[in-house]
Amino acid sequence: MITLQQGDITKVKVDAIVNAANSSLLGGGGVDGAIHRAGGNAILEACVKIRNKQGSCKTGEAVITTGGNLPAKFVIHTVGPVWNGGNNNEPQLLENAYRNSLQLAVDNNLQSVAFPNISTGIYHFPKEIAADIAVTAAKDFLMKHPEMDITFVCFDKENYDLYNALL
Ligand code: AR6
């Protein structure tokens, strides 16, 4: 099942929300900043532990932490690509970010996952291409895992309208 809503992902009560993080995992602006602010220090502490163990999180990969004070139980931190013209594997890396986040949810026996529009803010990925990649990745994943509930949480109306047309 795929659900679409417009709003703030930090308010969404699902098993895991996905964070559009950077490879440092130490927080930043945009949705990353909002998630760390709303979820509290437990999330950052968990990120620091992961970094100490594995180093940074590569683009397209994902890690999981507690949701801290969020209504969501967990946060899956993934790193989308910075848009750099489109000939630097950006589409594949964005698809990897969605797919690896969903796989990590399944590996942790989670059923409901909410995504922001990864890479379409500070990382400047064109929204229309990104929406197509996100929806295609979600539909592909649901073929193998029909029990999953995937929600797209769009912050801005432009993204909401793009997803609405695709879904
Ligand atoms: N809920 C849902 N979506 C949000 C929220 C929110 N509270 N706040 C922003 N968005 P961005 P990126 C949307 O810039 O492009 C950070 O500094 C926003 O409108 O958060 O992947 C990281 O640390 C946009 O559609 O992430 C990285 O350094 C989408 O979330 C870098 O930004 C993603 O925008 C990652 O850049």
Automatic annotation (TrEMBL):
<dbReference type="InterPro" id="IPR002589">
    <property type="entry name" value="Macro_dom"/>
</dbReference>
<feature type="domain" description="Macro">
    <location>
        <begin position="1"/>
        <end position="167"/>
    </location>
</feature>
<protein>
    <submittedName>
        <fullName>O-acetyl-ADP-ribose deacetylase (Regulator of RNase III)</fullName>
    </submittedName>
</protein>
<dbReference type="InterPro" id="IPR043472">
    <property type="entry name" value="Macro_dom-like"/>
</dbReference>
<dbReference type="Pfam" id="PF01661">
    <property type="entry name" value="Macro"/>
</dbReference>
